[in-house]
Amino acid sequence: MTEINAVVFDLYGTLIEDFPFDRQQDVLGAIARQFGIDEEIYRKEWKRIYPAHELGEPPSIRKVILQTCEQLGITPSDYNVSAASSTIQRFLASTLIPRYESYETLRLLKSRSIGIGMVSNATPGVPEVWYTMALSRFVDVSVFSCEVKVKKPSQEIYELVARELKVPTNAVLFVGDGGNYELRGAREAGMKAMLLKVYNGERPDPYGLFEEARTWTGFILRDLEQVFDHLGENAK
Predict the structure, then answer these.
(1) Which range of residues forms the domain containing residue 134?
(2) 74 lies in the same domain as 190
(3) Of 77, 65, 73, which Cα lies nearest the Cα of 124?
(4) How confident is the model over 34-92, as pLDDT tens digits?
């Protein structure tokens, strides 16, 4: 069996708490009112072009807002665009809340010379917040879809993080909450994949992201610290 030399984590729902979709809807509604747009129409347009946002198209929050307004046939003032950009950036900053066991898990991995990576399907604005967080300093390689223009479950993004960690994909353990079929993608790239399943009850899923989490039959972790049960001798 190949020795595990690195662990790659998903971000939302794994290293940090679940993304608050309900609060996101409130924020989008407030921005729509500011622009004088029907709230539901604005939310639907945002959702429609969300997949492109994750690929960094367009590459900034401000340009995302301008694109959304353009598609809806409105021309907002610079003031309103700047205000909306600030609102979304503050919202994104408030969403990056580490799980209680994340710091200790990453600290122990680091102390045992295990490489640490993070891969996230994220929109513009998230990387800027991530790199200000103490948690990010434990991570050797952080890969955001909006920066590299490819996202999970594409095999390319897993190969990218492994290459940056300087390990073959079959020496990597991937841990995620099962969004975007990320576990299948990791496994197809040659990694060992495990579902972090800490959510109790029905999970909000307005973007239809978590079908894999509901049907996963592979390895399951109930908390991040259980990752050490699967690393072999180099975790001791």
Answers:
(1) 6-16+96-235
(2) no
(3) 65
(4) 999 999 999 999 999 999 999 999 999 999 999 999 999 999 999 999 999 999 999 99
Q: Does a structural domain hold residue 46?
A: yes
Cα distances (angstroms) measured from residue 53 to each of 118, 122, 219, 220:
19, 8, 31, 30
For residue 133 the two structure tokens come to: 């967080």
Token pair 């353990």 in the structure block, residue? 173
Place of tokens 């099962």: 178
Q: Which of 36, 64, 95 is the last residue of a domain?
A: 95
* CA–CA separation, 54 and 63 (whole Å): 13
In whole angstroms, give the CA distance from residue 8 to residue 231.
12
How far is it, in rounded angstroms, from Cα 172 to Cα 186?
Answer: 9
Domain endpoint, select from 95, 130, 154:
95
Contact indicator for 174, 194 with CB cutoff of 8 Å: yes
CA–CA distance from 71 to each of 85, 162, 180 (Å)? 17, 38, 26
The letter for the amino acid at 169 is T
139 and 223, same domain (yes or no)? yes
With cut-offs at 50, 70 and 90, classify the pLDDT of residue 234.
Answer: very low
If you average pLDDT over every residue of the chain, what do you get? 93
